[in-house]
Design a protein that fits this description.
By secondary structure, the protein is an alpha/beta fold. The chain has nine helices and five strands; from the N terminus they run βαβααααββαααβα. The C terminus is likely disordered.
Length: 205
């Protein structure tokens, strides 16, 4: 088991991966819940079959893989569908993340999850950091990252859980609205303040 489990969360396109990447360079072991989810919905998996049963075969590409854009179009325009997606996927992702955490022998483990708090996974963490940024920056990042039109990107940002709930649970807030160096300075200071002997020394990022 790790010596310290740190949860890092924030709404979509807030910069969680930027922060967890910096933590990895400082010596943390990062478990990305989205990557775990992608593995669990690989072609032919039970979880993908459950999603297709609920949302229709149109979310499965011809090669058998999940069409994330098609699924996103459905769930980000229908709160009930989004709730069903969470209900179906969260237990499987949490179980697999827990299995991976238990196999890590010491050190600092970082859980990167957009719904860390909403899924209840934050209760397994020793501390929770919330990454925030300007909403317009979220839209811009989504448009670039996912090749979305502005309207679709805004719909996905709007569909996110209220940020206030995350902030209420946060032990620390990382403001990712500025430059990369400004974010890095916050991460390094917070890393040094962790109540464990965190490995690694801050270096160029």
């Amino acid at each position: 088991m790790p010596d310290f489990t740190l949860g890092v969360t924030g709404n979509i396109a807030s910069g969680k991966s930027t922060v967890t990447g910096m933590l990895a360079e400082l010596g943390a072991t990062v478990i990305d819940s989205d990557l775990v989810y992608r593995e669990l919905v690989a072609p032919g998996t039970p979880l993908l079959r459950r999603l297709a049963s609920r949302f229709g075969e149109e979310i499965v590409d011809d090669d058998g893989s999940l069409d994330r854009r098609a699924l996103g179009t459905i769930v980000f325009s229908d709160p009930e569908a989004l709730a069903d997606l969470d209900r179906i996927t969260h237990p499987a992702v949490i179980a697999e993340v827990d299995r991976r955490v238990a196999a890590i022998p010491g050190g600092v483990v970082v859980l990167d999850a957009v719904k860390l708090i909403e899924s209840g996974h934050a209760e397994r963490c020793d501390a929770v950091w919330v990454v925030v940024t300007d909403p317009e920056e979220q839209v811009t990042r989504l448009m670039k990252r996912n090749s979305l039109l502005a309207e679709e990107a805004r719909r996905r940002v709007t569909a996110q859980p209220p940020l206030e709930a995350k902030l209420a649970r946060a032990d620390l807030v990382i403001d990712n609205s500025g430059s990369r160096e400004e974010t890095r300075d916050q991460v390094v200071r917070a890393w040094r303040a962790l109540p464990v002997n965190a490995p690694g020394e801050p270096g160029p990022m």
